[in-house]
Write a structure and sequence with these properties.
Helices cover 7% and strands 64% of the residues. With 234 residues, it is mainly β. The protein has a single domain, classed as Beta Barrel (Outer membrane phospholipase (ompla), Chain C), CATH 2.40.230.20. The protein has a twelve-stranded antiparallel beta barrel with strand order 1-2-3-4-5-6-7-8-9-10-11-12. It is globular and about 55 Å long.
Amino acid sequence: MRKILFLSLVLLSPLFAFSTTNIEYLYGNFTGNSGFDTKGAKSTVTLENFSTFAYGDFFGFVDITRANDRFKNADKKSDVYFELSPRVSFSKTLHKDFSFLFVKDIFLAGQYNRQVHKFEDYHAELYGVGTDLSIKGFDVFGLNFYKKEQNFGGQTYQLSANYISEHIFGTPLVVDGFLDWTTGDFLTQNRLLYDFDYKLAGAKTYMGTEWHYYRVKDTDIKSNVLQFMVMMKW
């Protein structure tokens, strides 16, 4: 039943009313015991898309990574990881206003994560509820709560937040990022970007840094890395 529900969410995603896509290049040096990451520096090309459709919205990305040395738990230098996150709006589907206080809308939320390895794949299915919030200082602030089923790490719950604040205090600086918290680990990635107000091949251009922080509870697995970043956004 859950898989049928998730598939239904994914099939709704082509009915886009609004869509924005960006491509990013990141470079950072992962040192210490960073768990499943690389043994050193790596380059990542990320393709992201956010779209709205008649009954909700969709966010998805794919990371294509190349390590200077290799990945810690796999004898290879390249890796592919992606996430698909469709949501169905209660307000749009039921034609009723579900907003209250600082809550703008409520969603039925799903997510599918997959990392492609040479011999074995990591995958996770998440399902739960989400909200869009009106928070002063943020252009976008979303909060989602999931039950998470994965083939490595077992079953858990995940609280995810995503946020964007554009042109802080009237400057060309943009902050956006996310955090994922489960009972076993914590991940956050936050970008500080400069908007050049310049278009290249029809895309707005940004440059700055991304802070990557990951920690596994009750272990010494941790990564705390600043990565150089360039982004083009259509």
